[in-house]
Design goal:
Serine Threonine Protein Phosphatase 5, Tetratricopeptide repeat
């Protein structure tokens, strides 16, 4: 956008996905309310996962929708389809599932299954970031540092990378230092005040849609 260079999609995906996996492995709480399908997904039994997850996903369960999106994105037991991944991530994201919001933003950022659109990616990242999801906070900072889909705002980059760094998210400290170098003393004080007073947003929607 606006003539900016864009990262290679494969590299961008590997960096973001690997960092997210590290973050999850380092202590994100286990998913609540996992049913048989979610257990099968964890164990790599994707045919069972597909069979068990499809009905609750169709009935509006956000967790099931997210896992189906993951299966279609990665071609896990199904024919790989970014279009299907976006459909299921989108349904879960509209219900406020932060991991779905993040993954939907990632697909828009790298242009998989949709035209690359950093502005839309930033909106989905912002939703998840506002709820305290470190991978989304870090990616949103990345966009603010470069002015991709958002204004080039080092103060916002400092805010979001600082919040991700507080959760020990990989690469966040480096992004914060890059943002800091662009700030005047007054701007740095403003950015630090934003970090100090930041509070996560309260979700306005439930995990599962009403019947």
């Amino acid at each position: 956008m606006n003539g900016e260079s864009t990262p290679r999609p494969g590299l961008y995906r590997r960096v973001c996905s690997a960092a997210a996996l590290v973050f999850l492995a380092l202590g994100n709480p286990a998913l609540a309310g996992l049913d048989t399908g979610a257990g099968a997904f964890r164990n790599g039994d994707y045919p069972t996962a597909l069979h068990e997850l499809s009905p609750p996903a169709e009935n509006g369960d956000a967790e099931a929708q997210f896992l189906l999106g993951s299966m279609f994105e990665g071609g896990l037991g199904v024919e790989q389809s970014y279009a299907e991944a976006i459909k299921w991530y989108g349904r879960a994201a509209e219900q406020g599932l932060v991991r779905a919001e993040y993954h939907l933003g990632l697909l828009y950022a790298i242009g998989e299954g949709v035209g690359r659109n950093h502005a839309v990616a930033a909106e989905w990242y912002r939703r998840a970031a506002g709820r305290g999801y470190a991978p989304a906070q870090n990616n949103l900072a990345y966009l603010y540092l470069r002015g991709w889909g958002v204004a080039n705002e080092p103060i916002q980059a400092y805010l979001w990378s600082s919040l991700a760094e507080q959760q020990n998210y990989p690469g966040a400290a480096r992004q914060r230092m890059i943002a800091k170098r662009s700030l005047s003393r007054g701007e740095l004080r403003e950015a630090e005040a934003l970090v100090e007073h930041w509070k996560p947003e309260i979700p306005q929607v439930s995990r599962t849609a009403p019947e």
